[in-house]
Predict the structure.
Amino acid sequence: MFAVVVKFEIKLEHLDAFIPMMLENARASVRDEVGCHQFDVCSDPDRPGEVFLYELYDDEAAFKTHMTMPHFLKFDAGSAEMIASKTVHTYAEVAQ
């Protein structure tokens, strides 16, 4: 498995528009991408502008495919001005 964690800081005036876009992207990723197994969208009411993603893919290639999918490209273009900052970390499963 290949895990991806993303932390967004959303401009608060855009939060109500951002969340539905992100949820649609997450649903489409799991529904339409064979290599995407999980895509969780998380937040904490005490930090309303912070959105945390946890995604699981077959491998790095599946994640790279995700970033070329029409639903991702639509989300990425449509949300760009809403995001104050974004960090992405990836992790490969440690062989046992």
